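[stage:ingest] chain + small molecule (zinc ion)
[stage:ingest] validated
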Amino acid sequence: MMEHVSGLVCTMCGATYGVDEVEYVCPHHGDDGILDVRYDYERIARSLSPVRLSEDPTRSIWRYLPLLPVEPQQALDLVSDTVIADVGWTPLYPAPRLAEPLGLQQLWLKDDGRQPTASFKDRASAIAVVKARELGYEVITTASTGNAAAALSGLCAAIDQPNVIFVPQTAPQAKIAQLLVYGATVLLVDGTYDDAFELCLEAAPAFGWYNRNTAYNPYMSEGKKTVAYEICEQFGWQAPDVVVVPVGDGCIIGGVYKGLTDLLELGWIERMPRIIGVQAAGSAPLVDAWEQGRQGWDMRPVPAHSVADSIVAGLPRDRIKALRAVRQSGGALVRVSDAQIIAAIPALAQGAGVFAEPAAAAAYAGLARSVELGWVQPQDRVVVLVTGSGLKDVATAIRSVGQPLLVSPDLADVRRVLSSTWSVRL
Ligand SMILES: *Cc1c(COP(=O)(O)O)cnc(C)c1O
Ligand SMILES: [Zn+2]
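[stage:predict] done
[stage:export] tokens:
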């Protein structure tokens, strides 16, 4: 089975395991022993190539099936004709009006708000539902700040798959609404995301559930890496110079690096782009570790808070892969304030027509900061990942722009209100 996957390698000790030998983490390193999935690239190259891809009408992550850690035919049979078949292949928009004020010549937005459940997390959850069925589990569980859960419950609903979700009580209403509407069993944890994560780690083995938790489950990075394939393919297999990624647990940024590494191994791109991670100033343990030259396994939990709920993590679970992505790619990690994040929401929407949730807008705020710090140069070809839709957190969106104008149902009043606020002559 899965002949194209050559093994699972511990990111701490380098020990290699067969896919049937371990399920989640390296047995020698407990929850920190996060595994990397390795492939037989020669074998994959026999069935997949840029030319073959250019002839493939599939517009989703499943166009890269030979590079995903699943039983190919079983996966296709499960997802076809469901929303899971539509995960991925999101638009990549040029954003000249956003580039200009930053002094950049070429900027693109990869809009993952356009996924079936409106966030980037669909890429990982799609793999989780397929793996759970492959391995014969009856229930899937995850802890989440909101989006991973919404993604899991939405994709589970598509195939009538029971799931149990642990989310912090503070998650935005829209995300909680998604979970309930999709029919998940929702447990609101009276605690932080970090508490929810630990609780879920205990519950999964106790009840025999499949665990989708970020970083803990080695296959989640493998779903997330597909964004790197798409960006490079959408550019005609030319890697950009810089990819800017919002960072909480660090699974997305690790996945971006993994996808680019796969493409380098296959020889489909020529060099590794610089990967820049963006954290909220109130939840920036990875920026601290990067600045201090510390390793992921030396980090301890810190209190974390930000308006950008999707990137609040006091102990980033994929910290080893995140730091590796930044260090190996010659990238950087930057922090942005909540005020900068909130200001970035209307900036993105009005500068490109892309409505982002706070965590996603943070990436654009982080690009501005990276330009200031000299991490990005004017001629760089830059891609910003927009990881979630603005409809995920309407309260913060309203906060970013204020309330609308109020008129009585009367044209004279429309004239009065507009004349005091509009620059256009009536
Ligand atoms: C989860 C998430 C992130 C951060 O991803 P990590 O893998 O936790 O670093 C960023 N933006 C949005 C919208 C997310 O849902
Ligand atoms: Zn190990």
